[in-house]
């Protein structure tokens, strides 16, 4: 069952991402040579029009391959690269013969930018839709102080009381209890500026966290000593707004985690690949089965798919060669220069990016597998 759920989530994520590329490419007349789900040996293939549709064995990715992405086509002439007029005419004839579509590099630069951005954007749209499903079918945890977790709680000493609604932390608005928890998790003991509401009036205070050590796990973290969360349903038009809040929370938490990774604070960041993703599915499934029924399982899986979809969209926009963000950088440089980056330079940078990405995948895979034993 866990394997089936994993495959379903994987397929939804890949189809949404690559489907975004595919639809915008087709809309802009760019020829798609292959649309594939999975990597490695082919399990199933069928060609329709100019496109080969494939399902491959390994659930570790997918691809929307455009004509010209392999660098074998002849690009438009520029002073930075060689140009063969006969080959250029042959390519033009080929473009005209194949349903009037053109190769990726021959498309207008803005059409290529739209095609590249469409994949991550599709993941964000999917993430919002899934957030809407969750908000419509679960309780919302409002950021209301429900009690105090330690003696001499810093929050209580700073003036907070049960029933106070926290509205911002360090200047960032909060709408759900998880946002307060995230901000506290990321702190290293610095003072925390809190704005809260009580009886319809707004108040502000500054709290100095204390270091709390969990006796069971031995782990330590900084806390302000509160229990947070008051549950209620959200309905009607409000579900759209609160789905936006949920989407923003997951997007922000991913972005902040990347910031911690860059700063070297890896103790607060968890990187996972396909093996780690499968383990997350397993843990979510087991927890949902123990605490609820089939509806809880479905909602847990939808929540996990939402998190992964938003992660996938954001990660692909990073300006790293071999990712959509890296290709987007080259296209923006082309807009500024008025001509493409020479293929030999782009190819070398892409090669370095691919090598670095493969290296990271190996490290993450080793980390995921080591946690299983």
UniProtKB/TrEMBL annotation:
| Places the protein is found | Membrane
Membrane-topology descriptor: Multi-pass membrane protein
Naming one, the record's GO cellular component terms include:
membrane
**CDD domains documented for this protein:** cpPDZ_EcRseP-like (cd23081), S2P-M50_PDZ_RseP-like (cd06163)
Where does the signal sequence lie? none
Q: Which UniProt keywords apply?
A: Hydrolase, Membrane, Metal-binding, Metalloprotease, Protease, Transmembrane, Transmembrane helix, Zinc
Q: Which cofactor does it need?
A: Zn(2+)
Query: What EC number(s) would the UniProt record show?
Result: 3.4.24.-
Task: Locate the transmembrane regions by residue number.
Answer: 113-135, 293-312, 348-367
Top-rank taxon, per record: Bacteria
Q: Which residues form the PDZ domain?
A: 151-179
Gene3D superfamilies assigned: 2.30.42.10
Annotated region Disordered: where?
A: 75-97
Tell me which InterPro entries the record gives. PDZ_6, PDZ_sf, Pept_M50_Zn, Peptidase_M50
GO annotation (BP), single: proteolysis
State if Zinc is listed as a keyword: yes
Molecular function terms in GO for this entry?
Answer: metal ion binding; metalloendopeptidase activity
The chain positions of domain Peptidase M50 read 6-359
**What family is reported?**
Belongs to the peptidase M50B family.
Q: Which NCBIfam families match?
A: RIP metalloprotease RseP (TIGR00054)
Q: What name is this protein filed under? A: Zinc metalloprotease
């Amino acid at each position: 069952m866990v394997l089936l759920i994993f495959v379903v989530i994987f397929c939804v994520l890949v189809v949404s991402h690559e489907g975004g590329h595919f639809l915008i490419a087709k809309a802009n007349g760019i020829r798609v040579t292959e649309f594939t789900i999975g990597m490695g040996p082919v399990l199933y293939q069928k060609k329709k029009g100019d496109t080969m549709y494939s399902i491959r064995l390994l659930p570790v990715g997918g691809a929307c391959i455009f004509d010209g992405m392999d660098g074998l086509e002849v690009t438009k002439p520029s002073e930075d690269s060689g140009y063969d007029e006969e080959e250029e005419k042959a390519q033009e004839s080929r473009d005209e013969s194949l349903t009037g579509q053109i190769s990726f590099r021959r498309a207008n630069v803005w059409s290529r930018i739209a095609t590249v951005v469409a994949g991550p954007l599709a993941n964000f749209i999917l993430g919002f839709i899934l957030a809407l499903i969750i908000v419509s079918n679960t309780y919302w945890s409002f950021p209301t102080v429900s009690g105090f977790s330690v003696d001499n709680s810093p929050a209580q000493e700073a003036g907070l009381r049960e029933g106070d609604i926290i509205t911002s932390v360090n200047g960032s608005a909060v709408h759900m209890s998880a946002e307060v928890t995230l901000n506290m998790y990321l702190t290293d003991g610095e003072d925390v500026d809190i704005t809260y509401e009580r009886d319809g009036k707004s108040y502000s205070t500054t709290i100095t966290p204390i270091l709390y050590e969990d006796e069971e796990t031995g782990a330590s973290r900084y806390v302000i000593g509160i229990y947070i969360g008051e549950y209620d349903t959200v309905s009607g038009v409000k579900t759209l707004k609160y789905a936006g809040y949920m989407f923003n929370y997951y997007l922000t938490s991913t972005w902040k985690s990347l910031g911690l990774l860059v700063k070297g604070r890896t103790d607060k960041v968890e990187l996972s690949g396909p093996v780690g993703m499968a383990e997350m599915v397993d843990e979510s499934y087991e927890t949902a089965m123990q605490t609820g029924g089939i509806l809880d399982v479905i909602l847990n899986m939808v929540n996990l798919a939402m998190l992964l979809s938003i992660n996938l969209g954001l990660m692909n926009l990073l300006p790293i060669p071999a990712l959509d963000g890296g290709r987007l950088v080259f296209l923006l440089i082309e807009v500024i220069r008025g001509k493409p980056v020479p293929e030999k330079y782009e190819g070398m940078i892409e090669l370095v990016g691919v090598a670095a990405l493969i290296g990271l995948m190996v490290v993450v895979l080793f980390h995921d597998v080591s946690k299983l034993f």
